[in-house]
Specification:
mainly beta; 5-stranded mixed sheet; 4-stranded antiparallel sheet; 4 helices; about 10% helix; globular; disordered N terminus
């Protein structure tokens, strides 16, 4: 049942094996059982600094025909200007560096205290924000709707055996938020918070969340036992501090793929490295949609979907 559901989530014509091939390598690396992390107060150790760099071409993002989903005009405020919405994709910075990549140390057993903060995942402009987040095990994720439309959040825990559905609930809009405030000429709509869903994380590994009403909405949280991680900055750089001395495997993780490198950390020293990231493309017929849209928004009487928030553009 859930395999069929995931096929629908990723597009009816997308093979399930191809979908999960994009993250399988990362799943094998981070989903194995681990011992509980031991926190030590006032812990000091070595420092790791570096950059994640792209060494190959990026996979083509999936394209979604807005006419087949609810709220095409509101959600189409982020689109390509021709009736298509692109799924989230990596956008390299200068010198082929990559922002938004989670860099973490694998299987570290003890060290500095974990961060008590927990993320709030907002639905705004028909997308999850942030797209990538990191959460500590036994902490909570809060989903909150900031759009004037209803979203149904579905959270899955993927694995090599399949996927398990954890959440399947509607995120109601704020009753004072109206689509007309965003679509009427001359009006400037304000996003206001609506309902919340709070979920306590129990296991390590990646979680994927989607809106079952708007399949192009996708987000990921990586659940880790420890605080030794960093989400790369706009220039692709990262830094991790107070690492216990030792030899470790460093992982760069993203839904598009992974990279790893063995490192040796010394106390009170700084190690500088470069991680070469090689995405794993998913080969599906969704990558070869024709440029013309034979089932465009004109079928419901109007061909004007205006990308007033963001005009998406994919440069191959």
């Amino acid at each position: 049942m859930w395999k069929r559901r995931l096929n629908l989530l990723y597009g009816i014509r997308t093979p399930l094996n191809a979908v999960w091939a994009i993250t399988l390598g990362g799943l094998l690396m981070i989903s194995s059982p681990v011992l509980a992390y031991e926190e030590k107060k006032d812990f000091q150790g070595g420092t790791l600094m570096g950059v994640v760099s792209l060494k190959t071409s990026l996979p083509t993002p999936r394209r979604h025909n807005l006419v087949v989903y609810p709220d095409p005009y509101f959600c189409g405020r982020v689109s390509d200007g021709h009736g298509w919405r692109l799924s989230p994709f990596l956008q390299p910075g200068t010198d082929h560096t990559l922002p938004g990549i989670v860099v973490y140390i694998k299987d570290i057993k003890k060290g500095k205290p974990t961060d008590a903060q927990t993320p709030i995942i907002k639905t705004q402009d028909c997308r999850f924000s942030p797209y990538i987040s990191v959460v500590g095990r036994n902490k909570v994720i809060t989903f909150q709707n900031w759009d004037p439309v209803i979203h149904r959040v579905e959270v899955f825990q993927p694995s090599i055996e399949g996927a398990r559905l954890l959440i399947h609930e509607d995120l109601q809009r704020n009753p004072n938020s109206q689509k007309s405030d965003f679509l009427t000429m001359g009006k400037q709509g304000n996003h206001v918070p609506g309902s919340k869903i709070i979920y306590t994380v129990q296991t390590s590994g990646p979680l994927i969340f989607r809106c079952s009403y708007h399949d192009y909405m996708e987000g990921w949280s990586l659940i880790l036992e420890h605080p030794y991680f960093f989400i790369t900055r706009k220039d692709g750089t990262f830094s991790i501090t107070d690492i216990p001395s030792g030899t470790y495997t460093l992982i760069a993780w993203h839904p598009s793929g992974t990279a790893e490198k063995v490192i040796q950390v010394q106390s009170a020293q700084t190690l500088n490295i470069t991680l070469d990231f090689r995405p794993t493309p998913v080969k599906t017929d969704l990558q070869t949609e024709s440029k013309a849209n034979p089932f465009g928004i004109d079928l419901i009487g109007d061909s004007r979907i205006v990308p007033t928030v963001e005009r998406q553009q994919w440069n191959e």
